[in-house]
Task: inverse folding
C-alpha cells in the first residue's frame, strides 16, 4: 500500500439486503437523493434557492455532460468532460432558477438531477474545503470498489494520492479553492487495493457571496485507457528499440508513395538519412538511387501503387558519405475494409554483402580457375545477351596446335603455366573490351563485340597467331606454340550461340586440316569438313562400341612369296560411314591421346590373331604392329606389350613394332629409353616409312632397329627412274651392313618386286602380293598367291630377271 487507506472501515447505513436489479435501482436512486439532499441540508439554510438551484444544475449538468461525453467518445479527455460539464451547468442553471421559484418544481428538479446522477459514470464526490470527502455518488463508490458511499465518506481525498500525483491533486484542490476548475490524471488504489487511473476535475461550490463552501470532484475511471496507453507505449518503445538496433528500415508510406507515416531509425545506417528528414522530404532517398537503377525502381513502385500488389526492388544507392550500397526494398499494400489501399508498409535492407557474396560466387562460376579468364558458361551468357540484343559480333575459336604433345612432354605444371601465358598473350593482343574465355584444355574463344568486318577480324586473328609464335616463349625452355583459329559471325553464321560455336569450331577444324597455324572463317567450304568433324566427335565411343577392327597385310619373302609376317592395320567400322581408314582417325586419336587405349587394343587383338595362326601351324609367322609417337611417350607401352605377349603365350621375337622416324624424333631421349625397354623384352623394332622423314642413317645407327621399312612412295619410284633404284639399293646395302633387315612397302608391280629381290631386299609388302584384309581372307589370299606364282612362276620371274 502506498498510503494508509483513507476510507472508513466498512459499515453501512443503507439497506444492503436487496439483490435484484429493481431493488438496487431504487436504492441507488434513494442514495442519489440523499447525495443531493445533503447539499441542500448543508448549504440550503444559507442560500436556499440559489444554492439549491446551483447544485441541482451542477448535478444534472454533470450527468448530462457525462452522457454527452460518453456518447461522443469512450476515450474523451478531461477537457471534453470539463467542457461538457460547463455546457451542462450553463444550460441547466436557467432551468434551475425557474425550478427554484417553486418547491414542487424544486422536488421535480431534484428527482431529475438524481436520475441524471444515476446515469453518470464518474466517481462524483463532494469535498469540504479541507478536502474531506463528504459524500460520494453511488456509482462513484462502486468504481472505488467500496461496499457503499458511506465507506468512503469522511476520508481525506488528498490521502488517496502519493508522490507526484499527490502534488498534482493538491495543486488541483488549491486551484479549485481559488475558483479555477482544474483537472489532473493520476492513479490511486480502490478500497480493494487495485490501482485505478482517474481523470479528476475539481470545481468549487460557492455561496451567494462567492465564498467556496465545498468542492465538487468528478473522477473518470480511465484505467482501461491508461493501461492501453501504457501497453501501446511499451510496444512503441520495444519497436523503437528493435528498429534502432537492426540495419533495416521499416516504413509506412501513403498509398501512392507521396509521404511517409513512419520511418524507423534504421534509415540512418542504411540510407545515411535521418528518419525525420525522410518524413519532411519523402523523396530524399530516391535522390540517392543510381540513375540506371532509378527507372526500374520507379516502375516497380508505380506497379505496387496502381495494382495494389506487393513488390520488391533491388537497387544501388550512393549514400551521402559516398559509399555505394545495394538495397532491397519490399513493399506490401494495406487495405481498408472496402479493399482500398490505405498505405504501403515495407522494409528496406542493405544487401551489399549479400550482393558481394553473390558476385563472388558468380565470378567463381563464370571464371576459368587456371587462367582467370571467363569460362564457357560466361561466354555462352555473353553470346546469348548479344544475340538477344541483336548486336553483331565476331566469335573466334582458338585451338592450340599439338597441345596434347606439349602437355605430355612438358608435364602438367609447365603446360598449365604455358596456358596461363597464352591467356595473357591473348588478352594483351586483343582490344580491352573483347570477351576472352577458356573453354577447357587448350581451347579459347573470343567475342569481338560490334565487329563483323572480315578484314578487321582477319587482321586480328593474324596478329594473334603472330604473337603466339613469338611472345609465348617466356623462357628458353618454353616450346614454340601455334594455334588454329575458326571465326564465325553473328548473324551471318548463326542466330544463336550453339550455331555460332559450332560454325567457329568447324572453321577451326578446317584451319587445322589446312596445315595448322592459320585461321578460317566459317563458310560453306569449312562446313564440308563437318563430316570429319563429326567423325572426330564420335571417336571416343568407337572403342567401347567395338567399332575398331583389324585388317592384316602379308609381308612376303621376295623369292618364294611365302608369308613371313603380317602387318596389323586398324580400321574403324563406322556405323553409318562404313570402313574408315586409319589416315582419317589415327591423327585425331594421337592428338586426343586416345591412341594409347586404342593402341593397347590393337596390340592385344593382333597378338591374339597371331596366336591363332601359329596354333594352326604357321609356327614361324611374325606380327608387325604400328605404334605411334604418342604411345611411345607413354611408358605403359612396355607393360602393354609384355602383357599381350604373355597373355597369348607368344615369344617376343615374333612381334615387330613399327615406329616412324618422326615418332622417334619427337623426343629422342624418351623414345630411346622406351625402345630399349622394348628391346629388352626381346621384341623386334622396325623403322616405318623410311625415306619420308629425316631418312638419316645416323639415327638409324643410334636406334639400331631390326628392320627398315622403305616407304611406298620410294617403292613407287622403282621402274620410273633409275635414281630411286640406286637409292633403294644403297639403303638395303647400308642397312645390311648395320645388321638390319629391309622390308619394302607398296609393291604394286611385278617389276618392283623383281628389282627389290635383285637388290636383296629381305621382305616385300604391297598390293601386288596381298592387300590388307581380314584374317580369314588373308589366309586364302596367301594360298592363291603361292598357287598363282608357285615355284614355277617364281623361277620364271628369276629367268626373266637373269635375262
Ligand atoms: P603403314 O604402317 O606404312 O602401313 C602401310 C600402309 O600402306 C597401309 O595403309 C596399307 O594399306 C598401305 N599399303 C600397303 N601396300 C600398299 C600398296 O601396294 N599400295 C598402296 N598405295 N598402299 C599400300 P593404311 O592401312 O591406310 O595405314 C596407313 C597408316 O596408318 C599406316 O601406315 C600406319 O602408319 C597407320 N596405322 C595403321 N594401323 C595402325 C595402328 O594400328 N596403329 C598405329 N599407330 N598406326 C596405324
Ligand atoms: Mg606400318
Ligand atoms: Mg609404312
Result:
Amino acid at each position: 500500500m502506498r498510503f494508509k487507506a483513507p476510507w472508513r472501515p466498512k459499515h453501512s447505513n443503507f439497506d444492503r439486503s436487496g439483490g435484484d436489479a429493481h431493488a438496487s435501482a431504487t436504492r441507488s436512486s434513494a442514495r442519489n437523493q440523499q447525495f443531493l439532499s445533503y447539499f441542500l441540508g448543508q448549504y440550503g439554510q444559507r442560500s436556499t434557492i440559489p444554492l439549491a438551484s446551483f447544485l441541482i444544475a451542477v448535478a444534472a449538468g454533470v450527468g448530462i455532460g457525462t452522457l454527452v461525453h460518453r456518447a461522443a467518445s469512450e476515450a474523451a479527455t478531461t477537457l471534453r468532460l470539463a467542457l461538457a460539464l460547463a455546457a451542462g451547468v450553463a444550460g441547466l442553471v436557467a432551468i434551475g432558477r425557474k425550478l427554484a421559484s417553486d418547491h414542487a418544481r424544486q422536488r421535480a428538479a431534484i428527482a431529475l438531477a438524481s436520475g441524471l446522477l444515476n446515469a453518470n459514470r464518474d466517481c462524483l464526490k463532494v469535498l469540504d474545503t479541507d478536502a474531506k470527502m463528504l459524500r460520494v455518488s453511488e456509482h462513484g463508490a462502486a468504481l472505488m470498489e467500496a461496499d457503499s458511499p458511506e465507506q468512503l465518506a469522511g476520508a481525506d481525498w488528498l490521502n488517496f494520492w502519493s508522490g507526484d500525483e499527490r502534488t498534482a491533486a493538491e495543486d488541483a484542490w488549491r486551484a479549485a479553492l481559488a475558483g479555477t476548475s482544474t483537472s489532473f490524471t493520476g492513479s490511486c488504489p480502490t478500497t480493494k487495493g487495485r490501482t485505478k487511473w482517474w481523470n479528476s476535475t475539481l470545481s468549487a461550490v460557492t455561496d451567494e457571496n462567492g465564498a467556496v463552501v465545498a468542492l465538487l470532484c468528478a473522477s473518470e475511471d480511465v484505467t482501461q485507457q491508461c493501461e492501453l496507453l501504457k501497453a501501446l507505449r511499451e510496444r512503441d518503445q520495444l519497436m523503437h528499440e528493435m528498429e534502432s538496433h537492426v540495419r533495416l528500415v521499416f516504413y509506412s508510406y501513403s498509398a501512392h508513395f507521396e509521404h511517409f507515416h513512419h520511418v524507423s531509425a534504421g534509415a540512418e545506417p542504411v540510407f545515411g538519412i535521418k528518419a525525420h528528414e525522410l518524413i519532411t522530404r519523402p523523396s530524399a532517398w530516391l535522390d540517392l538511387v543510381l540513375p540506371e537503377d532509378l527507372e526500374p525502381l520507379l516502375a516497380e513502385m508505380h506497379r505496387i501503387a496502381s495494382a495494389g500488389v506487393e513488390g520488391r526492388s533491388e537497387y544501388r544507392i550512393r549514400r551521402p558519405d559516398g559509399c555505394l550500397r545495394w538495397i532491397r526494398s519490399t513493399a506490401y499494400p494495406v487495405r481498408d475494409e472496402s479493399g482500398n489501399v490505405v498505405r504501403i508498409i515495407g522494409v528496406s535492407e542493405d544487401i551489399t554483402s549479400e550482393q558481394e557474396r553473390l558476385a563472388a560466387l558468380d565470378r567463381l562460376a563464370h571464371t576459368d580457375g587456371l587462367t582467370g579468364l571467363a569460362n564457357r558458361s560466361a561466354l555462352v551468357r555473353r553470346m546469348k545477351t548479344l544475340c538477344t540484343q541483336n548486336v553483331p559480333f565476331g566469335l573466334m575459336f582458338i585451338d592450340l596446335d599439338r597441345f596434347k604433345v606439349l602437355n605430355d612432354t612438358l608435364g602438367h605444371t609447365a603446360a598449365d603455366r604455358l596456358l596461363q601465358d597464352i591467356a595473357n598473350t591473348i588478352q594483351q593482343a586483343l582490344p580491352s573490351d573483347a570477351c576472352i574465355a577458356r573453354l577447357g584444355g587448350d581451347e579459347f574463344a573470343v567475342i569481338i563485340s560490334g565487329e563483323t568486318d572480315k578484314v578487321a577480324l582477319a587482321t586480328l586473328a593474324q596478329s594473334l597467331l603472330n604473337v603466339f609464335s613469338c611472345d609465348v616463349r617466356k623462357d628458353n625452355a618454353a616450346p614454340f606454340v601455334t594455334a588454329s583459329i575458326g571465326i564465325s559471325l553473328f548473324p551471318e553464321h548463326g542466330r544463336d550461340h550453339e550455331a555460332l560455336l559450332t560454325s567457329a569450331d568447324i572453321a577451326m577444324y578446317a584451319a587445322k586440316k589446312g596445315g595448322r597455324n592459320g585461321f578460317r572463317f566459317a563458310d560453306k567450304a569449312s562446313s564440308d569438313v563437318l563430316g570429319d568433324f563429326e567423325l572426330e566427335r564420335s571417336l571416343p565411343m568407337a572403342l567401347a562400341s567395338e567399332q575398331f577392327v583389324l585388317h592384316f597385310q602379308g609381308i612376303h619373302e621376295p623369292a618364294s612369296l611365302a608369308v613371313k609376317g603380317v602387318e596389323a592395320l586398324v580400321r574403324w567400322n563406322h556405323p553409318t560411314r562404313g570402313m574408315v581408314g586409319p589416315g582419317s582417325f589415327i591423327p585425331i586419336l594421337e592428338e586426343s591421346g586416345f591412341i594409347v587405349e586404342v593402341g593397347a587394343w590393337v596390340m592385344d587383338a593382333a597378338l591374339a590373331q597371331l596366336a591363332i595362326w601359329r596354333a594352326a601351324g604357321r609356327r614361324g609367322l611374325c606380327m608387325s604392329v604400328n605404334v605411334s609417337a604418342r604411345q611411345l611417350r607413354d611408358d605403359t607401352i612396355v607393360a602393354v606389350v609384355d602383357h599381350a605377349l604373355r597373355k597369348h603365350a607368344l615369344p617376343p621375337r615374333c612381334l615387330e613394332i613399327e615406329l616412324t622416324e618422326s615418332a622417334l624424333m619427337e623426343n629422342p631421349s624418351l623414345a630411346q629409353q622406351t625402345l630399349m625397354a622394348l628391346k629388352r623384352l626381346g621384341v623386334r623394332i622396325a623403322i616405318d616409312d623410311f625415306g619420308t622423314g629425316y631418312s638419316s642413317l645416323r639415327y638409324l645407327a643410334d636406334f639400331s632397329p631390326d628392320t627398315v621399312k622403305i616407304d611406298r612412295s620410294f617403292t613407287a619410284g622403282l621402274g620410273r627412274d633409275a635414281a630411286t633404284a640406286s637409292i633403294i639399293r644403297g639403303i638395303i646395302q647400308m642397312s645390311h651392313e648395320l645388321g638390319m633387315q629391309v622390308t619394302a612397302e607398296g609393291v604394286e608391280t611385278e617389276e618392283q618386286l623383281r628389282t627389290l629381290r635383285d637388290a636383296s631386299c629381305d621382305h616385300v609388302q604391297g598390293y601386288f602380293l596381298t592387300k590388307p584384309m581380314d584374317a580369314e581372307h588373308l589366309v586364302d589370299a596367301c594360298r592363291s598367291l603361292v598357287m598363282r606364282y608357285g615355284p614355277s612362276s617364281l623361277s620364271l620371274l628369276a629367268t626373266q630377271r637373269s635375262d
Q: What stands out?
A: Residues 553, 568-570, 581-583, 586, 599, 602, 626-628, 658, 688-689, 712, 745-748, 765-767, 772 surround C2E (ligand 1) (CB under 6 Å). The longest strand covers residues 195-206. The chain has 31 helices and 24 strands.
